[in-house]
Hints:
Among the domains are: about 5-20 and about 30-90, no CATH class; about 140-230, Chitinase A, domain 3 (Roll). About 50% of the residues lie in helices and about 15% in strands. The protein is built from ten helices and six strands; from the N terminus they run H-E-E-H-H-H-H-H-E-H-H-E-H-E-E-H. It has a four-stranded antiparallel sheet with strand order 4-3-6-5, with helices on both faces. A two-stranded antiparallel sheet has the order 1-2. The chain starts with 5 loop residues before the first helix and ends in a 25-residue tail after the last helix.
Amino acid sequence: MKLLSLAAIGAATMMFASPVTAQTDTATAANTVVATVNGVKILRSDVEAARSQLPEQYRKLPMDQLYQPILNQLIRTKVLSAQARADKLHETEGYKRRVALIAERMLEEELLKKTIDEKVTDEALQARYDKTSGSFPTKEEIRARHILVKTEAEADAIIKELTGGADFAKLAAEKSIGPSKANGGDLNYFSKGQMVPPFEEAAFALAKGEFTRSAVKSPFGWHVIKLEDKRQSKPPSFEESRDRLSQELSQEFAEQLVRGLTEKAKIERFEADGSAPRMKRIQPAPPAR
């Protein structure tokens, strides 16, 4: 399978060398045995757990594409880890140190998750939205269609057809060389600063329903433009803002937690060789409160 690399699966499955403990005695699909390796069971829940640790672009793939590659990697991990235990590699100091470091990182993630889950509530998100939604400036937006052609003569011929009553969207679909031709030349809503200056100036000068009576030249060619609508932009809705607000609050609460615990901790720093510091380190300023 080209999309799913062995490295990505391996990184996801390295934390699941042992079966996931069932949360209930009730037989469920999650506890279905999907393979055994020397009598040791691999459960469907192990496959699901490994999938949850994949990079986002892989997690989005359907399970029927992920199942066999993940299961193969889990079997491989079982086989190799069993041999490593037989060789007593799990008793080495290097292994124990790595496990301890991984355990600390997992605890760090669990604490951050617990803090965020407790504080990033619907009420907190709504409060942040109410506080910030009014700060979004409104601006004029227009919705326009255009027909892009290579020469001024072609544009003039199209303007003549439009003056005679031809349908703008139909002409755009037939004659435009721009990517919007599939939508009848529709560019949707845009504000000033989003289009090249000659196009923008001509489009914003039109009244609703009007089209340009002379061809408009831009670096892309010659345009005939029709204004469909004008409006004042509105701030994004709460639902449209939810993900952004959640990310912002999560980051803020995580920083607050780290800063507060770090300030209370007794921290001593040394040089890379373990010797006393040879110069005072300049610490970064704490984030603004």
